[in-house]
Structures are given as structure tokens and as C-alpha cells.
Amino acid sequence: MAEAGPPTEGIVLTHFIVSDDVERSRRFYTDVLGGTLERSGEPTNVALANSWIVINRGGGPTDDKPDVTLETPRDLDRVSSFLNIRVKDIAAVYAEWSARGAQFLTPPKQHQYEIRCYIRDPDGHLIEVGQTTDREGDWSPPPWLSSTGGGEPA
């Protein structure tokens, strides 16, 4: 995977996480999840599958986000977003990542269209790991969900 940079067309999606210890988080995303270090320091960039994880310390407001403070999760039982990783073989990933030190909340559980489980990174950020089990090959959004965004019917 090439280093994260400006997109040649369209968009490039990265996931920014706030860390109290950037190096510790870097080790989790590279050593446990198998990402590749693309840039060290603050921020640190890790290539993971077809995306990047940007890891940096939190901080107070800036001129472009004047009322926003970045911090690690305070209450691990309340989450407003999480990283979602789709894998081909969840049993193999569960075994491999567990052997590397990942601590899953539960073993993988079967649900209607997928098998999934969750882990936390060292700062408490929630990560879903899932495998699609839909016989049609993959879950797809219901037809009423617009591709134009907003979740409103087309």
C-alpha cells in the first residue's frame, strides 16, 4: 500500500484515533492487527488493509475546530463510532490476533448475516471484527436506503 497522501481522484478514507501513548497504539495496530508503519512520530500513520489509521495525541481546540477537544474514550461502555474490520475467516483472525495479545470482549458470535466480535485498542477504542455469512456473498443495504447519503429513502 502506498503512503497516505492526497487522492488522485475521489477520496481517501483514514481513521483518526486519539491516543494517550502513540507508540503503544502503533504497536497494537502493527504488531497485533498486522498493519504497516508508514510514518512514525506524531501523528503516526499505519497502513491497514486498504486504509490508514492515523494515531495522535489528543488536544484542545484549534482555529478550525474552536470548541472541540480530542481525547481518548472516558466511558468504555458508551461509544459513538467504531472501526469495523471485515475479514474472510474470523476464526483464523480471532486465533491469530489473540495469540498476538488482542483481548476480545467475547469470542465470535453468529448473527443473522455475519459472525462478529469486538476488541479494544490500548486506549479503549472499540473495533468490530466481522465475517459475512450471507449466502448471496455479502450483505448489501436494503433497496430503500439511498446511495446519495443521509439514510433517507431515495
Explain the overall architecture.
- This protein has helices at residues 22-32, 90-99, and strands at residues 14-18, 36-39, 44-48, 51-56, 83-86, 109-110, 114-120, 126-132.
- The protein is α/β, with parallel strands linked by helices and 154 residues long.
- The strands form two sheets. Strands 1-4-3-2 form a four-stranded mixed sheet, with helices on one face. The protein has a four-stranded mixed sheet with strand order 5-8-7-6, with no helix packed on it.
- 14% of the residues lie in helices and 26% in strands.
- It has two helices and eight strands.
- The model is unreliable at 145-154 (pLDDT under 50).
In short, what is this structure?
With 154 residues, the chain is α/β, with parallel strands linked by helices. It contains two helices and eight strands, in the order E-H-E-E-E-E-H-E-E-E.
Tag the structure with descriptive keywords:
2 helices, four-stranded mixed beta sheet, single chain, alpha/beta, 8 strands, 154 residues
List the helices and strands and how they pair.
Elements: E1 14-18, H1 22-32, E2 36-39, E3 44-48, E4 51-56, E5 83-86, H2 90-99, E6 109-110, E7 114-120, E8 126-132
Parallel strand pairs: 1-4, 5-8
Antiparallel strand pairs: 2-3, 3-4, 6-7, 7-8
